[in-house]
Each structure stands twice: as C-alpha cells, then as structure tokens.
Design a protein that fits this description.
364 residues, D-Amino Acid Oxidase, Chain A, domain 2, FAD/NAD(P)-binding domain, 9-stranded mixed β-sheet
Length: 364
C-alpha cells in the first residue's frame, strides 16, 4: 500500500487549494473524489469579496467586476458601494488544477470514501465503498456538505439545516457592475439574487432555509422572474436550472481531531451572512496547509492544532456576529414590514457598516 503524507478526501475548491499548497511544499498528497470530472458542478457562478492575488488566481476567473450592491425589499432599496467579483467557478477550479504540482500530488477519481479507520489512537487509513484502503500520516475532510468524515466523527451533526437555492442563466438588461439582493415576503419567504456575468448574461436565483418551501423552489423562482421589477432586469431565455446547498449550522470551532483536519463546508466554514464561501474557505485551507506543513516537518501531530488557533483568532468573532445577522434576516424574511423596517435602518447606517455586514468582515 502506498504511504502518503496527506490524503485529502474531496476535490472541490477547499481540497484543490490545499493540494496546491501542500504540493508546492513538496509533501506527497493523494486527492480522492467520488466524481470522475472535477470541473462538473451543480452551479457555475458565485459572488465573492475574494482577493485574487492573495490566492494566486488571475483575473481570468472573473465574470464581472462589481462596485454596487442593491438591497431590495417590497417598498425600499438601498445601494451599497463595494468591490467584489462574480466568479466563473469552473475557471477557478481549472486554475487550481493547473497549478498543482503533479510530481507530488496524485488523484484518484470516481472513488467514494465511506469511513476512516483508527489504530493506536491515530487514524491510519480511509476505506472506500469497495473496502479498498488508502494510508497516510494526515487526513483531510474536504467533502463539502456531505461531511463524510466530519459527520462520522461527530465534528458536525449528521443532520444539518441547509440553505438551498436554484438559479437560471438569463439575458441581463441591467448594468454589469451591479448585484441585486432581494428580500422579504414578496420573494416567497426566501431570498433572491441577480449576479451579472459576461456578454449581457446574469444569474437569477432564489434560495431558502425553510424546508416547507424547498420542494417548490423552481416554481417559486419562475414566479419571481415574472415580477415587474425583475422583468426590467432579466429576460429568461433558458429553462435550464442549476443549484446547490450550503450548511446552516451553529458556528463550528472544532476542525482537528488527532491527525484529521477538516476544511470548507465539511465544517461549515462558509460565512453565515450571505453564504460567501470561497474567500473564507480558501483562507482556511491556507491556514490548514501551514499547520499540516509544520506537523509533517516536525513530525508532531499536535501542531495541527495551530490551524484551529489561527482560524479562531482570524474568524471566530466575525462568524459569531454574522450568525446573529443571519438569524435576524431569516426571521424577518417572512414579513415585508420587518424587511422594510430593516431596509430603512440600513439607509441610516454608513456604507462602511452596511458593507461590513454583507461581507462578514467587521472591524473590532
């Protein structure tokens, strides 16, 4: 059996960035993923406040540069000046794959891991559904919302509330540098979004955390597209629907167990306020890579705990504040009156404060 330094279970954004970082440090890494194509997704576009240079990504991954966010309730709207991007998810993952040092990083695709095995107080192997074993010094769960290992070991609850969304790629009639976020009962008890893309296209979507609404997501999105204010911005010319989910959990602080490290949605590292993922997940993966590198060089598994310590210093306070905002918005979203009231309050706040709330980055 081949012995790896690190086995990463999951070849999504978190897993690929971590593999790139560890490969650059010349650690022997195996990435295992259940899919046979790492560039095939349930959705292809996202919005992010990410600093591309920080993660060695180029402007080729950008669909549009955004400098305004419009928040809409039934009767009011608020403009927030900002700097963010809509990203081409496929381009992001392609750049990560192309930057991975294949002299040190191997891939095994189409393999579904089912469990992790412990011997002598450390994890020694992961096993797939065919009972094949894969051995390493350190293991990483980067399996996203599936949380294959994090759920097995109790780092995340097996049943979690999910925010689920569906979206269309449509003809866009609005300005390419502006994003729209839609709140209140008018939007069917959930929330909507419009993200501009290249070539006069945009994503229009609808999402909810309410399980009673999830079965009818597409129907509700179709109703939203027909609203007069939306028809001024969107011309639907395709019925191909995309979508996905993110976990809605309490803020999780435990990511390391013995020689297992968890990154990304496997431990709900998406920022709670607007589901902003890649910026926060990528930074978490970089923090994890440094702890793993130190643990391997010093042959000291306890150094993996530096990942948790650094993450808490960087993110914990912000995540707790964002979680409070998330719960408030979820509660208010069923009432146009409450959302209108919240919109009026946002008009009284400075642009800086509104942007902090949306981005999930607060000044202490």
């Amino acid at each position: 059996m081949h012995q790896y330094d690190v086995i990463i279970v999951g070849g999504g954004g978190a897993g690929l960035l971590l593999a790139r970082e560890l490969g650059n440090k010349k650690h022997k890494v195996l990435v295992i993923d259940k899919n046979t194509n790492l560039l095939d997704f349930s959705f292809y576009t996202l919005a992010s406040f990410i600093n591309l240079e920080k993660f060695n990504l180029t402007k080729n991954v950008v669909s549009e540069n955004i400098n305004k966010i419009w928040l809409h309730s039934k009767n009011f709207k608020t403009k927030i000046k900002c700097e963010l991007y809509t990203l081409d998810k496929k381009a992001v993952h392609k750049e990560l794959l192309e930057a991975i040092n294949t002299d040190f990083v191997d891939f095994k695709l189409g393999i579904q891991i089912k469990e992790i095995v412990e011997e002598n107080k450390l994890f020694t192997t992961v096993k797939d559904k065919n009972n094949n074993s894969y051995s390493a010094k350190i293991f990483v769960d980067a399996t996203g919302t599936a949380g294959v290992l994090s759920k097995q070991l109790g780092l995340r609850d097996k049943q979690n509330k999910l925010a689920t969304g569906v979206e269309y790629n449509a003809k866009y009639l609005g300005k390419p540098d502006q994003i729209y976020l839609l709140l209140g009962k008018t939007y069917k008890g959930g929330y909507g979004w419009i993200f501009p893309l290249k070539n006069n296209r945009a994503i229009i979507g609808f999402g909810t955390t309410d399980n009673t609404l999830k079965k009818g997501l597409k129907r509700r999105l179709d109703e939203i597209v027909e609203l007069p204010e939306i028809k001024k911005l969107i011309q639907l010319d395709s019925k191909k629907v995309e979508g996905g989910s993110i976990p809605i959990t309490p803020v999780i602080e435990k990511f390391v167990l013995k020689n297992l490290v968890c990154v990304g949605d496997s431990v709900s590292q998406v920022n709670p306020i607007v589901g902003e993922g890649y910026k926060f997940i990528f930074e978490s993966a970089v923090i994890a890579s440094r702890a793993i590198d130190s643990a391997l060089i010093e042959n000291d598994i306890s150094l993996l705990n530096n990942y948790e310590k650094t993450w808490k210093n960087r993110f914990l306070s912000n995540y707790k504040r964002s979680k409070i905002r998330q719960e408030q918005i979820e509660k208010f979203s069923k009432s146009d009156l409450m959302i209108d009231f919240g919109m009026l309050l946002s008009k009284l706040r400075s642009n800086k404060k509104n942007l902090e709330s949306l981005s999930g980055e607060y000044e202490n």
